[in-house]
Amino acid sequence: MTSKDANLILEISDLHASVEGQKILKGVNLKIHAGEIHAIMGRNGSGKSTLSKVIAGHPSYKVNSGSIKYLNKNLIDIEPEERARLGVFLGFQYPVEIPGVSNLEFLRVATNARRQNRGEDELDTFEFEDLVHERIKLVQMNPSFLERSVNEGFSGGEKKRNEILQMALLEPTLAILDETDSGLDIDALRVIASGVKQLAQPDTATILITHYQRLLNEITPDYVHVMSEGKILHTGRKELAIELEKSGYDWLNNSKDLMEEN
Amino acid sequence: MTSQTPVNELVSKPYKYGFITDIETEKISKGLNEDVIRLISNKKQEPKFLLDFRLRAYQQWLKMKEPNWANLGYPKLDYQEIIYYAAPKQQEQKKSLDEVDPALLETFEKLGIPLSEQKRLSNVAVDAVFDSVSIATTYKEKLAEHGVVFCSISEAVTNYPDLISNYLGSVVPINDNFFAALNSAVFSDGSFVYIPKGVDCPMELSSYFRINSGDAGQFERTLIVAEENSSVSYLEGCTAPMFDTNTLHAAVVELVALDNASIKYSTVQNWYSGNEKGIGGIYNFVTKRGQCKGKKSKISWSQVETGSAITWKYPSCILQGEGSVGEFYSVALTNNLQKADTGTKMIHVGANTRSTIVSKGISAGHSSNSYRGLVQMGPKAYGSRNYSQCDSMLIGDNAEANTFPYIRSQQPSSQIEHEASTCRISENQLFYLQSRGINFEEAVSMMVSGFCRDVFNQLPMEFAAEADKLLALKLEGSVG
């Protein structure tokens, strides 16, 4: 075991998973260490979003075989809320609207659940308001969105800002951002990218799931993986993403000179 | 909502009020006939006018049929198998709480309603009703200083016969419906409130109804009269032990508000609802009606209905006085095999009357939950308005939600608005909350209380918190 493995945050081995009886993941292998930013790219239906939901523990996705180790714990046996408390964070591609539940209250309950797990004191309403007003600057979100119901009637951009605000409050060890860049104009993209960069710490890891190079212009990944048909087909450095943008995914299927190097 | 533990604690105790108090009870033999009614009346040493009232009601009841129009469906009740009077054995006429059987005091303390001088709830006066009798009423003297009468209805019959004979049956006539007629014939006890002219009742009034006997029906009767320019807020709570037989509860509540008077009536109903297979539980057939008799009077009903195997209940307002206001705020939650058919009637008689209906139905498990409401604009209800909002929330795939709005307008200058919606707690919403570290039960309870917020905001503060917890508790294991 190399010294680097001591910093291992996530290790996925030969992961097979299905949804509604349909096999989507067909043997995913992935290792992520502290301080790393990984990008996962691929066509629609290649399994990227499924992978993120399986890691977060969505009940509709069934793990058929393989393992997901997070900080040496077997994630598959752990309830989704417990995964979140342990520091796994999924930024949703389509954040869900929850009418009637105050965004502020939701953020506070979530933050306190995570704090409890870390042995920190619960924040009362006032302490939490201070914290949230500090963190909200990171995503340049209008504080009036705190008073509304969770994501209800938010624009696409506001929903994504709200996701990154949650990330800023929960301080995850592993953040998976599923197409956080989709539906954003360039200004919003820059704000969110800068927020994500600031939240990435030497002891945390980030997975960016994206279709496009443009997010990766803002956040430079350490590794780029390309998924196809439920597997990670290729792994490279940031140049791989640039090449993909230029030549499209078809180019990969014909190319043999890119070898897995992770 | 601040931490995980209270919810977990709550959900691990499905019905914490299900205990039975072991106390010697005086019961009459089951069945109903004129002799039984005379016996009840005699036990309560009632004046003749009341016995006549009962007998007239009984005669009417004999001619009536049990209603079957509600979306309920339950096995036919055998009214000769029910005991119509059950009371804890104790010496007659308690002078003070010290004389009340300690087992009874302990029962109410276990229910969170301490009655003793030291522990009683501050600023809430309580009338505690156990099976067929009222066992204690707190803060009576303090209220009397303001001229407010708050006592059991039996006591009122003795002490205020004129008020009783004037108002009893004036809002809900003895032949109003099958269950009201039955109640009028055999009602045992309940609360009486009288607020004199110009008095704002200095504290919340509350009745707590406890059914203890499995085979006895409970037929309580409540009457509240608010004179001109007076106001009162009244709360009602109900629990019962877990029996595997069904117990009948048929209550009548009448409210009368004179000029500029305001009555706020809140209920948290948590009768035993039967187990997850639908065995046992209370059959709750209740007639509640308020008469806004005076100009600019106001009657507001808020209810949180979570218990009972069967609920049949339509707290209503007759808006007679010009400019009077009626409100109905309801949360009805059904789980397992519970069935509820509940709603309201807003009868606009006078000009410029207003009514608001906000109904939130939550159906989980295999339950069925129906809103049934009537808005009627009479020929003289010039310029009157109604706004109704009926929302249903479905939890799981096997529950049923229905809305039956009835609208009748005989006055073209009146306005009626009706909005309705149905939603479902989706797996994706739950997963979203869970993926932020919020556990399953708390996620459901957050969404449900968010859904009910418009109604909870109308409840007195202590009740709102209680209602929130109660819903969380009731939904245990209902999702997924």
Structure at a glance:
The complex is a heterodimer of chains A (262) and B (480). Chain A has helices spanning 48-56, 80-85, 103-117, 125-139, 156-170, 186-199, 213-218, 238-247, 250-254; strands at residues 8-19, 22-33, 37-42, 61-70, 73-74, 88-91, 98-102, 149-150, 174-178, 205-209, 223-228, 231-236.
List its traits:
heterodimer, A: alpha/beta, Rossmann fold, six-stranded mixed β-sheet, 9 helices, 36% helix, B: 480 residues, alpha/beta, ten-stranded mixed β-sheet, 11 helices
Low-confidence stretches of chain B: 1-13
* Oligomerization: heterodimer
Bin the strand percentage of chain A. Answer: 25-35%
Number of strands of chain A: 12
Total strands of chain B: 23
Overall pLDDT of chain B, averaged? Answer: 86
How many structural domains does the protein architecture of chain B include?
A: 1
Biggest sheet strand order of chain A reads 6-9-10-3-11-12
- Rounded to the nearest angstrom, the distance between the terminal CA atoms of chain B is 21 Å
- Please state the structural category of chain B: alpha/beta
CATH superfamily of chain A: P-loop containing nucleotide triphosphate hydrolases
Largest sheet of chain A: 6 strands, mixed
Assign an overall shape of chain B: globular
Distance between the termini of chain A: 15 Å
What CATH architecture of chain A do you see? 3-Layer(aba) Sandwich
Give the overall shape of chain A.
Answer: globular
SSE topology string of chain A: EEEHEEHEEHHEHEHEHEEHH
Low-confidence stretches of chain A: 256-262
- What's the story with the biggest beta sheet of chain B? 11 strands, mixed
Structural class of chain A: alpha/beta
Helix content of chain A: 25-40%
What does it look like?
Chain A is α/β, with parallel strands linked by helices and 262 residues long. Chain A has one domain (3-261): Rossmann fold (3-Layer(aba) Sandwich), CATH 3.40.50. Chain A is 36% helix and 29% strand. Chain A contains 9 helices and 12 strands. Chain A has helices at 48-56, 80-85, 103-117, 125-139, 156-170, 186-199, 213-218, 238-247, 250-254; strands at 8-19, 22-33, 37-42, 61-70, 73-74, 88-91, 98-102, 149-150, 174-178, 205-209, 223-228, 231-236. Chain A has a 6-stranded mixed beta sheet with strand order 6-9-10-3-11-12, sandwiched between helices. A 4-stranded antiparallel beta sheet of chain A has the order 2-1-4-5. Chain A has a two-stranded antiparallel sheet with strand order 7-8. The model of chain B is unreliable at 1-13 (pLDDT under 50). Helix content of chain B is 23%, strand content 34%. The relative contact order of chain B is 0.10. Chain B has 480 residues and is of the alpha/beta class. Chain B is globular and about 60 Å long. In chain B, strands 5, 6, 8, 10, 11, 13, 15, 16, 18, 20 and 22 form an 11-stranded mixed beta sheet that branches. Chain B has a 10-stranded mixed beta sheet with strand order 4-3-7-9-12-14-17-19-21-23, covered by helices on one side. In chain B, strands 1-2 form a two-stranded antiparallel sheet.
